[in-house]
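USER: If only I could read backbone structure tokens as easily as an amino acid sequence. It would mean a lot if you studied the pair and described how this chain folds. Here is the record:
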Amino acid sequence: MSAPRVAFFGSPAFALPVLEAIRERFAVVLVVAQPDKPVGRGLKLTPPPVAARAAELRLPLAQPTKLRGNAAFGARLRESGADVAVTCAYGKILPASLLAVPPHGFLNTHTSLLPAYRGAAPIQWALIRGETVTGTTIMQTDVGMDTGPILLQQELPIAPEWTSIELAGALSAQAARLIVEALSRLPGLTPMPQDESRATHAPMLVKEDGFVRWGDTARAVVNRYRGVAAWPQTTAFLNGARLKLLGLGVTDGQGRPGEVLRVDPGGLAVACGEGAVRVETVQPEARKPQPAQVWAQGAGVTPGTRFDLWEPAPA
């Protein structure tokens, strides 16, 4: 077939490299993004990054508030003449009636090696769970949650120092390359069903996912820090007060979970269930980040001080 005409569904900045890569090679006949939302203290109505970029490029843009039962939007997608639709971090569930509109359906760029880490936060949970390799999957979207057949897949090694911020950047670039390959090979790709027995899940993060579990191993505490770096970030408690912790790494030492072992120019060494972590920077609530040693001196934190222990409620 000739080069397919593409409808692109995406919302956050993560999706921008994918949109740019597609429009360089293919005709983008419609861009679909989430509606504008109030942002900042002034609650100024602000378009998502994909919508803002589409407006700059003067691409046809739609921002429907809902998709299910939206006959007008279904008609607009049909009238766009799209041969295929691509989704990248769009943020809404697609109903079956919409999936049937483009002749070649919907292709989704998912940031894991499916069937591993289906769901809203595959980048974050891969890091939290200590994975050393992840990747991108181009899949044919169906009505399930990331359950459709796989069209293309490519691995990506995770650098030990990467947080969710760096990993998202690397996966965004990989997704941009891989979706161009997939579109170039349509309709010659062979769909491969996912192995349901190997499926794992990556639910949307909540604030409590960023709370430090001092009883975990030092490596697990650092992996959680890496996974929640973009949001909700790492939170600890001292005498009930919340503190953001930044610059975490594994260090030497042993003690009671949450116990401060050392305070020096390199930061704090805090014991975990196994080993210890170094904390370089501390940010008390409603204050700016400061070197951990400076914060400790002001807060009267010395070796032997113990952070509050927090554990998730039983499921």
Notes: The first strand starts at residue 6 and ends at 10. DSSP finds eight helices and 15 strands in the chain. The chain has two domains: 6-198, 207-299.
